[in-house]
Amino acid sequence: MQMPPLDPAILSRRSEIVAALRAIVPGEGVIDDLDGMRPYECDALSAYRQMPLVVVLPETVDQVSAILRYCQDNKVKVVPRGAGTSLSGGSMPVGDAILLGLGKFNRVLEIDYANRCARVQPGVTNLGITKAVEHEGFYYAPDPSSQIACSIGGNVAENSGGVHCLKYGLTTNNLLGIEMVLMTGEVVRLGGKHLDAGGYDLLGLMTGSEGLLGVVTEVTVRLLRKPATARAVLLGFPTEAGAADCVAAVIASGIIPGGMEMMDKDAVKCAEAYVGAGYPLDAEGLLIVELDGPSIEVDYLVDRVAEIARGRGATTVRVSNDEQERVLFWAGRKAAFPAVGQISPDYMCLDGSVPRGKLVEVLGEMRRMSKQHGLRVVNVFHAGDGNLHPLILFDANNPDELRRCEEFGADILRLCVRVGGVLTGEHGVGIEKRDLMGEQFTEIDLDQQMRVKCAFDPDHLLNPGKVFPKLRRCAELGRLVVTQNKIPFPDIPRF
Amino acid sequence: MASTIKPRDSKELRQAVEWALNEGTTLDVRGSGAKLTLGKPMVCDQVLDLSGLSGVVDYAPEELVVTLRAGTPLKDVEALLAQRNQMLAFEPPDLGPLLGRSAGEGTLVGAVMGNLAGPRRLSAGAARDHLLGFSGVNGRGESFKSGGKVMKNVTGYDLSKVIAGSWGTLAVLDEVSVKVLPAPDQTRTLLLLGLADEAAVQAMCAAMGSPHEVSGAAHLPGKTALRIEGVAPSVEARLKGLRELLADSGARLEELGTLESRTFWREVRDVAPLKAAANDVVWKVSCPPTEGPAIVARVRAECRAAEAFYDWSGGMIWLALPASADADHILVRSAIGSSGGHATLIRAPEAVRAVVPVFQPQSPALAALSARVKESFDPKGLFNPGRMG
C-alpha cells in the first residue's frame, strides 16, 4: 500500500501555513509539535501511519469555513477527522496535508421528541446520541461496534452500519440533514427535520463519501423508539451449510430479525475461551438471532425461528429467558475481535459483502486460500445481510507475514466481487481497499465517481490518497470531444 | 412533434445516447410517460423511450433483491413480489389518476426517478432507501454502474441516492437492483374521528413515538388513521396499546380490518382523498411533522378554498388550490417559512409550470453545487433538459 508522494513545495511552506492557521484558530487549536501530533498519526487501521503536516482543531463553523477557504486558495490538502476510528484508513493523516479534527464540535444542540430527531455536532459520539435520549425511551439505531468512541460525523462520512442494519438500515437511512462546508468555504445545509430533498439528494451522496466531498459541521439524525423487548436465540449447527441455510430460511419465511450473526468454529472457540458465553464447542456454525419488538411478537417469532432451525438440523437451540442471558449470548460475539487478539499478535479485519446464497461457497474458498497463504482466518459476520468480517491472523513485526496478509485479504475481497458481492459492506474503502476498486468497477465507473468528486472539490484537496486508485485531474476528466455528425444513426427502432 | 427512439437492449441504449451526443440532440427520457406532466415543461429534439427494456432479470426472494430492466411496469413487479409474499416497502404511489391519466401505467424506475414513497415512508424510507444499485448510460454516452445487489455496500460514492429523485436528468438507467421486504400478514387501522389538524398531528406524533411500530399515520378532514402491520398476535396487542395511549385524545376510536385497511392506505398513497377539482393545482409539501398544521393554516388564511390532507405523521401535506396563473407558489413556499421543508408543484397546466419554480428554489451555493453535479453526469445537458428548473 503506497500513499501519494509528498509535495516538497507544501512541506517547505509549513511555517507559513501554520501561521495562517493560527490566525484563524487561536491558542491551542493548532498543534505543530511532533509530540502533540503523535496521537493523530494513524486511525484504527494502525498498520499504516504518517505524521500530518499540522493538526488544527477548530471550534466554530466560521473557523472551518476560513480554514477550507485558505486551503482552497493556497492549494493545501486537508484530511478531515472525527474520532479516528476508521478501520479502512479513511482518516489516516497525510504528510503534506492539514489534519482537520472536529473533536471540539461535541455538543448535542437540540432534541425534538415530537418530530423524533436530534440535531448534534459532528464530534458527538454515536453512543452519545443514544445516551442523550434513552431516558425518554428513544435511541439512534445504527450501532457500529466502535459506537462508544466513533463520532457521528465520521459515521456520516463512512455510512457506518452495525449489527442491526438488516432491519434498521445504515447511517444513510437514519439521517435527516447535515450542514457542511465546501472547499470554497461555502456553508450548505442539506435536509433538516423534514424528509427527502427538494432537488438532487446530495445528503445521500455525502453519506459514505469518506470525507472526500465536504466537511460536515452539523448532523440531524432520526430517533427511534426503543423496541419494547429483545430476545436472542443461540443456534448451533453441525455444518456451516446448515447455519447458512437457516439464515436464508428465516428470511424467506418473512422474518426480518433485528440482528442475525454467524461465527465459525474457530471464532466460537476463541470467544468461548475468552468470555465463557456458554457457546456449543461442537458447532461448526453458530448463529445468534435477535428478535426485537412488542413482546408478544418477539415470543411468537422466537418460536418460529427455533422451529425453522430444528428443521435445518440445529443441534443447539437455546432461547434467552431474560435480559441477562440475552447479553451473555451476545458477549461472545461482541468480544470476538479481542478474543482473536488473544491467540494472535495481530489480525486484519476485512469487510466484504456477498449475496447470502454464496456464504458457504465463500467460507470454503477462504479456507482453501488460508492454506495457500499460510495464515489462519477466523470468521465472524453479519449473516443477515451477507456482510463478512474475516479476521486474518498475522504478526505485524514479521514483514513477510504483513505482505502475505495483505495478499490474502485482497484475494478474499476479489472472491467477494467474483460471487456478486462488493469490497466493503460498512468499513469504507479508505486506503485499505483503494487499489482493489478496479476489481469491482471499470475505469468508466470510477471516472464517473471522480467527476462527482470534481463537482465538490475540483483540485482534489479533500482527503487525498483515499478511495480512488488512480487520480485524474478534473480538467482531463471533464474534457469531451464531440465530432459532430460523425456517428450514423444506429439501427434502433424509431418512429 | 419529436420522433421516438426505442432501444431494445443495453447496447442500443448506449448507441442512442452516443448518437444524440454527437448530433447535439436533447432527449426526453421516459419509461411509460405516466409522469410526463410533472416537472418543468421541456422542449426536446427526440424522445428516448425505455419501454423496450422491460422484464425481470433476477429475483431471489431469500436475498430480498429484485433486479429488473428500466422499462418494467411497476404493476408487473408488484404482482411478481406478491406471489412470494413480498413487497416494495416504500409503497410507490400511482400518481396516474391525480395527473389525469389511467391507473397502473407507471414503471418502477419512474417511481425511483421521482424518489416517490407512500405512507410507509415514515418507517421504511423512500425509493432512495431501496435502490441498491443500477447500471445506465451517462451524458457522455458511456455505460457505467454503481452500487450492487447486496444489502450492505459502501464501496464508492452512493450514486443511487442522487439518481433517485433526479427525474431522469443525470443518467439513463438500464437495470436497477431494488431491495424488497416481506409483506405483512395483517394490516389494521385505528381511526380517530373528530380531531382538528393540531390535535391530530399531536396524536400521530405520540403514536409514532410509542413502541407500537406504527407504519402509516395520515390525517384526512375529521379522520385520523394509524396503521399497524405484522403477525396477528402482535397486531392485536399493539392496537390495544395505541387505544390506551390515545384514550385521552378526545377522539372517537374505530378500527378498520385488513381488507378495508389495504384499500384505505392505497387511496392515501395515490392521493385519492384529495377531492380537488380537475383544474385545481396540487402541491406536495414536505415539512417537520409538527409544523404541518401551521403551514396549512397560513395557506388557508390567504386562500380559503385550499384543500389539504396530511400523510407521514403530518410531515407531508397534499394541498389543492384553485387554478391561478402562478399556482400561488409564493404563498405556499412562504407558508413553509423558516421551519424547513420543501414544496413541489405536482399538478398544474403547462403554462403555469413554465413560469413557476416546480421544485423548491435553492440557496445560490446549493444551486451551483447541484448544477455542477448535473454537469458531472451530463455535461452537454442531453437528458430531460430543464425538467428540474
Gyration radius of chain B, rounded: 21 Å
**Total number of β-strand segments of chain B?**
18
CATH class of the largest domain in chain A: Alpha Beta
Q: How many runs of DSSP E, i.e. beta strands of chain A? A: 18
List the main descriptive attributes of the protein structure presented here.
heterodimer; A: 495 residues; alpha+beta; Uridine Diphospho-n-acetylenolpyruvylglucosamine Reductase, domain 2; Uridine Diphospho-n-acetylenolpyruvylglucosamine Reductase, domain 3; Alpha-Beta Plaits; 4 domains; seven-stranded antiparallel β-sheet; five-stranded antiparallel β-sheet; 18 helices; globular; B: 389 residues; 3 domains; four-stranded antiparallel β-sheet; 18 strands; 25% strand
Task: Please write out the topology.
The complex is a heterodimer of chains A (495) and B (389).
Chain A (H helix, E strand, L loop, with lengths): L7 H5 L1 H11 L5 E2 L2 H4 L16 E3 L4 H14 L2 E5 L15 E5 L6 E5 L4 E4 L5 H8 L4 E2 L12 H7 L6 H4 L6 E7 L5 E5 L10 H5 L8 E8 L1 E2 L3 E9 L2 H13 L6 E6 H11 L9 E9 L1 H17 L4 E4 L3 H12 L1 H8 L2 E4 L9 H15 L3 E6 L7 E5 L4 H20 L18 H4 L2 H14 L17 H5 L17
Parallel strand pairs in A: 2-4, 3-4
Antiparallel strand pairs in A: 1-2, 5-6, 6-10, 7-11, 8-9, 8-10, 12-14, 12-15, 13-14, 13-17, 16-18, 17-18
Helix pairs in contact in A: 10-13, 14-15
Chain B lengths: L2 E3 L4 H14 L3 E4 L15 E4 L6 E5 L4 E5 L4 H10 L2 E2 L20 H6 L7 H4 L2 H4 E8 L4 E5 L11 H5 L7 E9 L1 E2 L3 E8 L3 H12 L5 E7 L2 E8 L1 H14 L6 E5 L1 H12 L11 E6 L5 H11 L4 E5 L4 E6 L7 H8 L5 E6 L2 H6 L8 H14 L12
Parallel strand pairs in B: 1-3, 2-3
Antiparallel strand pairs in B: 4-5, 5-9, 6-10, 7-8, 7-9, 11-13, 11-14, 12-13, 15-17, 15-18, 16-17
Helix pairs in contact in B: 10-11
